[in-house]
Design goal:
alpha/beta; Rossmann fold; Serine Threonine Protein Phosphatase 5, Tetratricopeptide repeat; DNA Cyclobutane Dipyrimidine Photolyase, subunit A, domain 3; 3 domains; 22 helices; 7 strands; 48% helix; disordered C terminus
Length: 495
């Protein structure tokens, strides 16, 4: 009988730097199949009380779904003559049933760190082992392995800067594992996965015309990485706070989130580009962003459930507001603050918005509306094409002031941010067409007369009083913390 093993794909949809695949190949297996489960976990906010109208829309953004289908389609074509099976349902139910049916002797996968994902992996492991099927989970999708860290995970530094200093001094990024030269053929007929995925893809909407378009899959990911490292990366530090364009940022985040790229592959090719063309502040800054991603992953592994708690990692008793109408206005880009609304409308239309825009809208939700930061994190979880559990929730913790930000009470002035980073109001006018007739200064924050004339809504909250309310609330919560956890500064205006 042919010895068959399987690779359970999660956020590792690639062939390069795939530890689980390499382990399966080295096991002596005569046939390897890939399996992907279309089902939970989709979201991780659990039992929060969300507005009913919003809770009813708990599904992936169609453009994110499109990116996922394209990624699976690319992989299905790349792994031939090995098959990619698509299952639907609860993993702990459908994987063991499929494994028994196909005669699988072992399942390989990459370890997940978020609580819900860990629970599901444990349930799959137990179900398989009860049937005599081996289960192996290996580290993957990080720059460093746990054994490489210069500290135990439980002693992870509270501040990113200290983490960065330690790993840069004492840890080395390993070379990525090469993709296999060939995969063993599968005995018997292959599933009609490619045809099914193409049919599904045809039913999904295309991105809005004139916007940046991602194509899912390892093939497209490697092409984008090489194109970015061939030139644009060398000015990244100067352009990274922009809102529009194809090359102001790497645009690699969707590929990293779904695992079309491994961070070690990005690092290796970045170092080669530096060797060929010279390193500068911008090439370092791309590595710096990879380190932020890495930090949030280890922080999630350390903190587990506290990563999703209302008081965050600081356990701050902030009386977050539950205001469905204000929240819906934020989602739909009807806050009356043009830079906030432009970003939220872009997110709604394209499943993406820039890093600078994400910080601005997160600040507005948590510091001006004082709405539970987990509402915003969950909306991003459902909406973003590049959703990554650790990065998304870690950044929301940070912006809400309940994470690891050492600078204290952080906020963004939406009008000032527009002047600095959208000087001609191009981004604002792209996504808020009713403001196109206004001059840039008027578009940053229109007068009541201009709003009425063009049909743009008034502000749903006054900026300065609402900010002061949030500051006072945050400070009262901070005073309830142990002195050793208090932040150094309370009032910072983000540049």
């Amino acid at each position: 009988m042919v010895q068959k093993v399987a690779i359970w794909l999660l956020n590792d949809q690639r062939l390069h730097d795939h530890a689980a695949l390499q382990a399966a190949l080295q096991s002596g297996a005569e046939a390897i199949a890939f399996v992907y489960v279309w089902g939970p976990p989709h979201i991780s906010w659990g039992t929060l009380s969300y507005p009913p109208a919003y809770a009813a829309e708990r599904r992936l953004h169609p453009l994110r779904e499109r990116f996922l289908v394209e990624s699976l389609l690319d992989l299905a074509e790349r792994v031939r003559p090995a098959p990619l099976y698509l299952l639907e349902g609860e993993p702990q139910e459908v994987i063991p049933r499929w494994a028994i049916q196909e005669g699988i002797s072992a399942l390989y996968t990459h370890t997940e760190w978020a609580p819900e994902e860990k629970r599901i992996q444990k349930a799959v492991q137990q179900a398989l082992q009860s049937q005599g099927i081996s289960f192996q989970a290996l580290e993957g999708n990080s720059l460093y392995e746990e054994a490489q860290l210069p500290f135990p995970v439980e002693n992870l530094p509270f501040l990113f800067t200290r983490f960065r200093q330690l790993v840069e001094r004492h840890a080395t990024v390993k070379n990525p594992l090469p993709p296999p030269t060939a995969l063993p053929p599968w005995p018997g007929p292959l599933p009609h996965t490619v045809e099914l995925l193409r049919e599904r893809l045809e039913k999904l909407p295309a991105p809005p015309p004139g916007t940046f378009t991602w194509k899912g899959g390892e093939t497209a990911a490697l092409h984008r990485l090489d194109a970015y490292l061939a030139g644009p990366v060398f000015t990244y530090k100067q352009t990274r706070n922009s809102f529009m364009g194809d090359t102001f940022s790497s645009r690699l985040s969707p590929y990293l989130a779904l695992g079309n790229l491994s961070p070690r592959e990005v690092y290796a090719r970045l170092r080669k580009a530096e060797k060929d063309h010279g390193a500068n502040d911008s090439t370092y800054w791309l590595f710096f962003e990879l380190l932020w991603r890495e930090y949030f992953r280890w922080l999630l592994k350390k903190e587990q459930g506290r990563f999703f708690a209302p008081g965050g990692l600081r356990n701050m008793a902030i009386p977050w507001q539950q205001a469905p109408d204000l929240f819906q206005a934020w989602i739909e880009g009807r806050t009356g603050y043009p830079i906030v609304d432009a970003a939220m409308r872009e997110l709604r239309a394209t499943a993406w918005t820039s890093n600078r825009a994400r910080q601005i809208v997160a600040s507005f939700l948590t510091k001006n509306l004082l709405i539970d930061w987990r509402w915003g994190a969950t909306h991003f979880e459902l909406s973003l094409i590049d959703y990554d559990t650790a990065s998304n929730w870690g950044n929301w913790l940070y912006q809400a002031g309940v994470g690891t930000d050492g600078r204290g009470f952080r906020w963004f002035d939406p009008v000032r941010q527009a002047r600095l980073y959208d000087p001609q109001a191009t981004f604002i006018k792209t996504w808020i067409p009713e403001l196109r007739s206004l001059s840039p200064p008027e578009a940053y924050f229109p007068t009541p007369y201009a709003r009425q004339k063009v049909g743009y809504p008034p502000p749903i909250v006054e900026w300065q009083p609402s900010l002061q309310r949030a500051k006072d609330t945050w400070y009262r919560a901070l005073r309830g913390e142990p002195k050793g956890n208090q932040l150094l500064r309370l009032w910072t205006d983000e540049e």
